[in-house]
Amino acid sequence: MAKKHLIWNERYECMPDSKKKELQLERLKLLVSRVYDKVAPYKAKMDAAGIAPKDIKKLEDIAKLPFTTKEDLAANYPFGMFAVPMKKIIRIHSSSGTTGKPKVAGYTKNDIKMWADVMARTLTCGNTTKNDVVQNAYGYGLFTGGLGAHYGVEKIGATVVPISGGNTKRQILVMKDFGVTKMCCTPSYCLFLSEALREAGLEPGRDIKLNTAFLGAEPWTRELREQVEKNISIDAIDIYGLTEVIGPGVSSECMEKVGLHIFDDNFYPEVVDPDTQQPLPLGEKGELVFTTLTKEAFPVVRYRTRDITRLIPEKCACGRTHIRMERLTGRTDDMLIIRGVNVYPSQIESVIVQIPGLEPHYQILVDRQGAMDMLEVWIEVSPGIFTDNIKGLEKLEKRIRGEMESVLGIGVKLKLVEPKAIQRSEGKAQRIIDRRTVYDK
Ligand SMILES: [Zn+2]
User: Taking the chain, what is the end-to-end CA distance rounded to the nearest angstrom?
Assistant: First the structure.
């Protein structure tokens, strides 16, 4: 049966390619002139590279422009990259800054309008209409998730329930009593909640009306999606964004769930080789780079996201012409280098969710013994597995270790723990504990 595809803003979401390229070029030219005139760090970098706004004549000329990195943002913290005076800025958001200085974003009135539009597109990608009741369990506050999703729901005219994160009992109560049909939260919290719903004996379709969840703010695997969708019979839609670009609303899966449509009339994507920094041919995997074509307060030019993905040039069955990016397999920031080998948490997760008897709750511990990096993975086993069957447990351990070592290419220490032994997160999951940094300071 053909899937149903609602579209929020057909004029931009289904724009023919040639017309979109014209629009992108026109917007790029304006952007480059504006940051050159208004943002000192951009002028300095462009002058050093010997490039002026007039050198941007076609879209490909974007590759002549210098990159912007999170180090640039840190050096100009908090407001040094803003392109408008503070009196034009009506809101500030910021990242948590767990790995260095927080990234600070400012928004003008028009920026907030554009953000609401791209979030309305995102929510409509999962067929949200004004008849829906949307439980927004993203954190409200400096974090972009809460208010970002909130304005998108209101723009559509659906009903927003601004519950914010945490307090699972209340989340369940609200979901049931308010007739919630759509939900926004992190994938790890959705998994947690789906289990809590199952444990409470609440049946989807009978006791709760939830049919779709919009999950973002952390990378998650295909297998985790299958688990959530199976637990509570919903569609789990992957959404993507980052504070430096706008917040959530940069790209979203449609109901086809094959890659995320980038709202590329506003956010121009490139994929570059993370080592040589050269643009890669369309369709090749590398580091995702964004230029914000329409943002006023805090535009970014060729911002290096550290996220690794590829662009999908083929047309999507939903009718949108927005180019798609493949689901993220990892962020270069999340990558661990262990004994010289690159290890992504998603590789570990993909092994865990495929082995029966294991729960998708795990923690990765990295430590150093002498000069040697040690990788240890704690995994919860499913209820009923922890019996007196020592032989069975040994067999399970052997299988996990074997599969992990073949995927990662290095030895792994394992610890199987009882159900619920790993602390549950009500926000972003704390998957990695890297103790090596203690020694490096
Ligand atoms: Zn699509």
Answer: 58
